[in-house]
């Protein structure tokens, strides 16, 4: 296996609720409290953020702070690309999920001719564009940007020129073409979507393994099917948004908690199944928000437990 390089991106400007910028530190505290030296053993790079812009007046209400998100995703993309070109494994720890567009863009820039597979473990589809978003929070848009999908058929918002320009810049980070094909995207646990996202999921035939389906059919059956579905891909990126977990079972320590999610052991099972394919070349953990945790630091502790368990298996 390649040497792991931690990429710490504490940005939370793409979220609707503040606090995810502290998620990485909460995970480190979780490790310290159980005397685990993971974060001392793994070399890391810190990505500069624009978190101070949360004090700025929002002028692009259908894509809040998108200009700064573009800058942040460019920084992440450049860092991921450099780490991959150095033959290291980028393990990205992020605040909010808008960062995934930067990670995927850097992954594609480092592998321009590769077929990329995307494993998206999340309660949300993150397929909105500024034209369709009801909230304007950019952490709900990374996959639409990566697919270069405006979804104009479901348009509800009229954008100004600055927002359009920033959105086009976001879509074109790393490459001016879509980063991957819709058939190479697999969702796990998506259960909180809007009509615009559902329309894309249906028309693009994107597979979502719901929690109930995996428990009914059997997690191993579903994972065998899913890994075979991505067998033609040259490289795989996994992202784990902690809101894929059952907020009632674990905690509500994330910006958009949703009930009836996965248990931690199921998340480990999913991630490990793909790691065993030897095609995973990049991974991301995101959306831990300790300010919202109703059980002390439980969400960060759970996220670190998954991280540590999966990478022990990976080694």
What keywords describe this structure?
315 residues, alpha/beta, Arginase, Chain A, 8-stranded parallel β-sheet, Ureohydrolase
Written account of the structure:
The chain has helices at about 25-35, 40, 65-85, 100-110, 140-145, 160-170, 195-205, 210-215, 220-230, 265-275, 300-315; strands spanning about 5-10, 45, 90-95, 115-120, 185-190, 205-210, 235-240, 280-285. By secondary structure, the protein is of the alpha/beta class. The chain has one domain (about 5-315): 3-Layer(aba) Sandwich (Arginase, Chain A), CATH 3.40.800.10. It has an eight-stranded parallel beta sheet with strand order 2-1-3-8-7-4-5-6, sandwiched between helices. Strand 7 (about 235-240), helix 10 and strand 8 (about 280-285) form a beta-alpha-beta unit. Helix 3 (about 65-85) runs parallel beside helix 4 (about 100-110). The radius of gyration is 18 Å and the shape is globular.
Principal-axis shape equals globular
Multimerization state: single chain
* Helix segment tally: 11
Query: Biggest sheet, strands in spatial order?
Result: 2-1-3-8-7-4-5-6
Alpha carbon gyration radius: 18 Å
Order of helical and strand elements:
EHHEHEHEHHEHEHHEHEH
- What's the architecture, going by CATH? 3-Layer(aba) Sandwich
Q: Note poorly predicted spans.
A: none
Tell me the CATH topology.
Arginase, Chain A
CATH superfamily: Ureohydrolase domain
What class would the helix/strand composition place it in? alpha/beta
- Give a short account of the largest sheet: 8 strands, parallel
Strand content: 5-15%
Enzyme class: hydrolase
GO cellular component, one term: cytosol
InterPro entries: Arginase, Ureohydrolase, Ureohydrolase_dom_sf
Cofactor: Mn(2+)
């Amino acid at each position: 296996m390649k040497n792991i390089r931690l990429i710490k991106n504490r940005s939370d400007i793409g979220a609707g609720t503040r606090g995810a910028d502290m998620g990485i530190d909460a995970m480190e505290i979780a490790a310290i409290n159980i005397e685990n030296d993971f974060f001392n053993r793994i070399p890391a790079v810190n990505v500069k953020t624009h978190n101070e812009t949360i004090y700025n007046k929002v002028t692009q209400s259908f894509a809040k702070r998108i200009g700064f998100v573009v800058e942040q995703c460019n920084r992440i993309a450049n860092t991921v690309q450099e780490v991959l070109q150095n033959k290291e494994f980028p393990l990205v720890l992020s605040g909010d999920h808008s960062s995934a567009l930067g990670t995927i863009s850097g992954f594609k820039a480092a592998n321009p001719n590769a077929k990329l597979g995307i494993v998206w473990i999340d309660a949300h589809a993150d397929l909105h564009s500024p034209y369709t978003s009801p909230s304007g929070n950019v952490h709900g848009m990374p996959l639409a940007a990566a697919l270069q999908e405006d979804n104009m058929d479901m348009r509800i918002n009229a954008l100004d020129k600055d927002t359009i320009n920033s959105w086009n810049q976001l879509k074109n980070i790393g490459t001016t073409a879509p980063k991957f094909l819709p058939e190479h995207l697999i969702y796990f646990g998506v259960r909180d979507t809007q009509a615009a996202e559902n329309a894309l999921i249906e028309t693009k035939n994107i597979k979502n393994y719901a929690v109930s389906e995996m428990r009914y059919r059997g997690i191993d059956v579903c994972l065998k099917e899913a890994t075979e579905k991505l067998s033609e891909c040259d490289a795989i990126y996994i992202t784990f948004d902690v809101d894929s977990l059952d907020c009632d079972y674990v905690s509500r320590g994330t910006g958009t908690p949703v009930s009836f999610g996965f248990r931690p052991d199921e998340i480990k099972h999913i991630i490990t199944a793909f790691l065993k394919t030897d095609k995973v070349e990049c991974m991301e953990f995101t959306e831990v928000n300790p300010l919202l945790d109703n059980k002390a630091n439980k969400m960060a502790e759970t996220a670190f437990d998954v991280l540590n368990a999966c990478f022990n298996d990976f080694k």
